[in-house]
Structure to design on (408 residues):
């Protein structure tokens, strides 16, 4: 039975241990709610991208540059968020980031040009990035406390939120303006944050004095730098794919295949559903296959799925490809971030996440320019290439984590 220390280290002990176990269970539930909220808000934004593109009159390349703001804002705040998590704890930072993300989501539909859209997406991306790092840092601590590879399940909650958000977006895309839709999402996010915050904050440790040196947290060192870098590159390859699906999947269905806006939004919903199924089964998969084989098999599956999703000539085949890609990508990012956090703490989570979101940083403009130069379907095949690269890198670096944590 675990006794809480930070987020808990397991020690035996009767009633005390039972109380601690119950406390960890409540913390897991509260974290799950915030993972769901994160995915719900982000998906609610991405399914309205086609409508906001039409509203701003942006070309594919101009939209790509505007969407760069989401990832750029996230990358800028991620390192800072890692430091805030070490100083104040990941849980209070998560609550603050959730509230700010809920408020900032109302801004994109209020813009009238690609430039203005890009500027407000910087703010939205900064909040999204802060929430990502703080949530994952808290999740790494919880996984260590419980002693099970639960990171995929927690990320499954994110995907479940994305599925619900995208599904609702598909229902209202034809009849509700993006302004009304995103204002309602923002209000919902604020209400959920206020309701769930107490359950999270009661577990938050006291802020650490700046001069405290005892029991220093894990940091990136020469021994751990290589594994954090490998994890970050794997996260980059897969975040590129997730970002491409979020930003361009619906547009591909609507623009290249003539799908109805509701059907186009359903494409991302199916992708999110497949990721949810993959992640909810991820703990069992990791316990049976291990991290290396899970990453390698996922990358190859995603590569095959995305080739079908990009190049198939019919809507239903594209939807199947999107679902297969989601199933393959499901556990790669969570495994990469969890491994980086295990060897380097919040600093590792921040570094791997920053590299990962660099994939989203380069993805939107790269696909936008390639779409203008070649075509959007050909541009989307780069997702398959990077998914295959993640599989190769994951297999090639299979011994790095053990070497990083081995005693000299």
């Amino acid at each position: 039975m675990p006794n809480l220390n930070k987020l808990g280290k397991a020690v035996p002990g009767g009633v005390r241990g039972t109380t601690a176990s119950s406390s960890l269970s409540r913390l897991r539930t509260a974290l799950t709610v915030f993972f769901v909220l994160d995915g719900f808000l982000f998906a609610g934004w991405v399914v309205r991208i086609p409508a906001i593109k039409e509203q701003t009159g942006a070309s594919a390349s101009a939209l790509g540059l505007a969407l760069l703001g989401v990832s750029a804002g996230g990358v800028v705040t991620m390192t800072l968020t890692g430091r805030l998590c070490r100083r104040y704890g990941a849980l209070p930072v998560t609550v603050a980031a959730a509230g700010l993300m809920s408020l900032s989501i109302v801004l994109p539909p209020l813009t009238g040009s690609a430039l203005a859209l890009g500027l407000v997406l910087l703010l939205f991306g900064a909040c999204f990035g802060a929430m990502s790092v703080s949530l994952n840092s808290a999740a790494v601590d919880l996984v260590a406390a419980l002693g099970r590879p639960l990171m995929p399940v927690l990320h499954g909650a994110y995907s479940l939120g994305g599925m619900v958000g995208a599904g609702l977006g598909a229902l209202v895309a034809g009849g509700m303006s993006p302004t009304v839709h995103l204002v309602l999402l923002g209000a919902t996010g604020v209400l959920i944050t206020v309701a769930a915050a107490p359950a999270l904050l009661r577990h938050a440790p006291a802020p650490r004095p700046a001069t405290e040196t005892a029991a220093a947290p894990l940091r990136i060192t020469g021994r751990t730098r290589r594994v954090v870098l490998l994890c970050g590159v794997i996260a980059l390859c897969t975040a590129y794919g997730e970002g491409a699906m979020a930003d361009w999947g619906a547009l591909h269905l609507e623009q290249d295949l003539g799908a109805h806006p509701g059907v186009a939004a359903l494409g991302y919903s199916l992708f999110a559903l497949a990721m949810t199924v993959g992640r909810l089964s991820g703990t069992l998969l990791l316990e049976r296959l291990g991290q290396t084989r899970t990453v390698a098999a996922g990358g190859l599956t995603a590569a095959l799925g995305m080739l079908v999703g990009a190049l198939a000539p019919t809507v239903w085949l594209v939807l199947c490809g999107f679902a297969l890609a989601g199933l393959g990508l499901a556990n790669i990012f969570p495994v990469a971030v969890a491994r980086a956090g295990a060897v380097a703490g919040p600093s590792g989570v921040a570094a791997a996440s920053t590299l990962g979101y660099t994939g989203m940083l380069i993805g939107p403009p790269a696909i936008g320019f390639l779409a203008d130069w070649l075509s959007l379907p050909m541009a989307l095949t780069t997702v398959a290439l990077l998914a295959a690269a993640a599989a190769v890198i994951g297999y090639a670096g299979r011994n790095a984590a053990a070497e990083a944590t081995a005693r000299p």
About this structure: Residues 1-6, 8-16, 208-216, 404-408 have pLDDT under 50 and may be disordered. The beta strands are 2-3, 9-10.
